[in-house]
Amino acid sequence: MPSASCDTFLDDIEDIVSQEDSKPQDRHFSRKHVVPKVRRRNTQKYLQEENSPPSDSTIPGIQKIWIRTWGCSHNNSDGEYMAGQLAAYGYKITENASDADLWLLNSCTVKNPAEDHFRNSIKKAQEENKKIVLAGCVPQAQPRQDYLKGLSIIGVQQIDRVVEVVEETIKGHSVRLLGQKKDNGKRLGGARLDLPKIRKNPLIEIISINTGCLNACTYCKTKHARGNLASYPIDELVDRAKQSFQEGVCEIWLTSEDTGAYGRDIGSSLPALLWKLVEVIPEGAMLRLGMTNPPYILEHLEEMAKILHHPRVYAFLHIPVQSASDTVLMEMKREYCVADFKRVVDFLKDKVPGITIATDIICGFPGETDQDFQETVKLVEEYKFPSLFINQFYPRPGTPAAKMEQVPAQVKKQRTKELSRIFHSYNPYDHKIGQRQQVLVTEESFDSKFYVAHNRFYEQVLVPKNPTFMGKMVEVDIYESGKHFMKGQPVSDAKVYTPSISKPLARGEVSGLTEEFRNRLGNHLNSVSHTSAATQRDSASSRMVLRLQRLHRDFALKMSVGLALFALLLALLVKVYN
Questions:
Q1: 28, pLDDT greater than 70
Q2: What SS3 state is found at 210?
Q3: Where's the MTTase N-terminal domain (predicted)?
Q4: Got the DSSP string for 380-417?
């Protein structure tokens, strides 16, 4: 193998120095002419890096949250509780969706359109890169749907843990809490009633008296989410009512999936609860009873008639009939017949003159014939319900009715339209023009032109927008009527009565901040504060370690280069002086 060769051989490394190169002593004497270049540090940027937390740190409790709720008054109450807890922990509840950091979407599973709105809102939030927490009956009933994958979910009985779910979601985690509340193995009504809340209307308190129901209706998806009946104890409900009145509330709504079934699981009853509640209602304040199915109210007709006569209880009851065909009711598994419904309505109309009966009807349930539908039409024509909720049937996934043979879509639409026409053919309030009524003013109309009040029978009365009327009991003369309302002119010499025993909370103000919750809040905020401080300390420590490591690395490099140069210079000096 040929050996490597070159033209000039070097005996040693010193041979690379030529005669033209400067000598070491020459370089030494020229060093005084070297001017060091000073590298200036960006002091402002340096200090900012020192004091700011790392880019991947997140401090919960300071973000803006937008809450959207669909569905019934029970769902609205849940939304108020979640808003109250989040606000109490420092989050800002905003009405501007685009300005929010996180969207809390509280869903309804009763009908397809409500779920469609819910799904579209999720898609929009994802397009806008918002953090998302889902609540309500849709994710509770079907948490494994594809469009819910990877998203945080809080169950209908876990709303007292909404702060935890929101905190983890803001940190980038996906959390799902879907369990049931139990005490010694017995299912409870849900989260505690004394939690903080933000009422949408500071004058109206919505109290859920129980969750779930005893029925198994073949079309109902809500049962999958809310489950079987679980009632709150009477003393807890009374305490919640008392607290509400202390905060300026003048109207209470009792709500649940079926108020008539209240207490059957705890050895009590709806009348027993109502008699206790009317004892604590201030004079002039009112109570409105929510929906009750016919089977359970039948047992308490006498007592219910007496309660609905009480001056502080609206003479109003919502009793869904759904269909006037016994054949259809049997397919729905409604557990009553049309005769039962008529017996309830006739008895209450006789014992409580003027009572408002509201009802629901489903058009186009599977198997409904033209004859079945005509029986429903006759019922509406006979009773002329002043409040009628007409719903086209929607098959909900996972329900028995979804597997039944469906009525053609065009037929369902036609029947819904026909029943709506009949409903709008009569005006239930024409005969009340000229009457003088006491009305309780609690809201503003959608068009912002009037205040909305309700009379003894929970009929809507529009009154002039006089700020002194809000939250007051006012005497008015009825001068006009429409399909869904009357208009009243305040009597000039009438006294305006204030039913509230204290000043109402401001809109958006948190209610129900008990001493126990304040203590829990203080501990949590201290924990967050310590965590934040620790995060910043850890961040500063991490940056200091990195800087020390850089300095050590730079020093080692410089030492290595220095030693190499020193060795080179020493070798040159030896060469020169030899």
A1: no
A2: strand
A3: 63-171
A4: HHHH--SEEEEEE--PPTTSGGGGSPPPPHHHHHHHHH
